[in-house]
Amino acid sequence: MGSFAGLSVLARERKGEGVKPQPKKLALAQDVSQIEKVELHQHVDGSIPVDVTWKLMRKHGLNPVETKKEMEKLLVLQEGEEGALLKYLDKFHYPQWITQFYGNISHVVEAIVAEAYENNVRLLELRYAPIIHTFAGLTLRQTISSVLTGINKAKDRFPTMEAGLIVIAMRHQGPHIAKILARQAISEGQALHNRTGVIGFDIAGAERGNPARLFEESYEIARRGGLHLTIHAGEDEGPQAIWEAVDVLGVKRIGHGCSAIQDKTLLKRLARDKVMIECCYTSNYQTGAVKLGEPHPILTFLEYGIPVSICTDNTTVSATSQNKENEKLLPWLNEAELAQIHKESKKYSFIHHENGRPRAALTQIKNPGKRRLGLV
């Protein structure tokens, strides 16, 4: 099976109506653990290991509860909390208490990369919203740099790991803040680093009331600065949000994109233009993007020949990992097919190196006049 087009045939054959029972976990873990994986959609704030958060809370005297077990309930979505986006987002408050300091941010990022490596992830794109880490005095540049430092430390430990950073602007903070963040992201772009740098730009947060079209200028700034473009869309809004992301912002990847299945014309467009969907199986059920008991859209995407990647979103909040996400897809896709998805996903990664620098960014460096466009 050599491509997403080939996988689409299998998806049509195997697509079922409803969620099938999970095979035995012990057998599954052995099946998927050796797959070399690509992670294209994982947030720093929702992926800090519980043990790391607990130790830092205790170190700074910030722990709101007395035991790690109690702390875990505040960080990980619990039974009965699934299906509501607000309950999911509640889990992000406490990690921000300890990620306002350069050293702490670098430390938690290193731990996240290490955990991914243990799941045989060999290409990792982390996402990070710098502005929510400036409350104790760090500048935007410093918060971005702290993540890059953590990634580099992890890469020293795991030389076979490729990694990069996607900077996020939060929708609810508005288009002007997004433009500022796009400029700051460019200032730490991969083109300016011999090691790890910023490779992409994204907007996340509440879709409703914050349409993609309002962020056109920030995306144009990011594009001119050599950054690759993705967006959270179709998670809490209908297909129109995805249409805007593709037609107005010109993105080549969509985070979640669940509502695309409501529009067959859109599905055909995504397939035609090879716009990748970053699929987050567990998270989508937990946030209500996909209703509990309904089949996940990933099979529909494959059926139409749309490129997909298998992503964790937030490993701690969702109590998941790359191995677990792949296990959950085994009722429909076998080990070889999952491995093929990861192999194809690598082609859509924003980590496209040419002497350690993204090709798109190199074009801008060779023409400094163009690189300055939109950055003042």
Offer a concise description of the structure.
45% of the residues lie in helices and 14% in strands. By secondary structure, it is α/β, with parallel strands linked by helices.
Number of helices: 18
Instruction: Give average pLDDT, whole number.
Output: 89
Instruction: Provide the structure class.
Output: alpha/beta
Radius of gyration: 20 Å
N- and C-termini, Cα separation: 48 Å
Give a written overview of the molecule.
There is one protein chain. This protein has 376 residues and is an alpha/beta fold. The chain has one domain (4-368): TIM Barrel. The protein contains 18 helices and 10 strands. It has helices at residues 4-14, 25-32, 50-60, 68-75, 85-89, 95-98, 102-118, 140-157, 174-187, 216-224, 239-247, 264-272, 281-287, 298-304, 322-328, 335-346, 359-366, 368-371; strands at 37-43, 121-128, 162-170, 198-204, 228-233, 253-256, 276-279, 308-310, 353-354, 357-358. It has an 8-stranded parallel beta sheet. A two-stranded antiparallel sheet has the order 9-10. Helix 9 links the parallel strand 3 and strand 4 (198-204). The chain is globular.
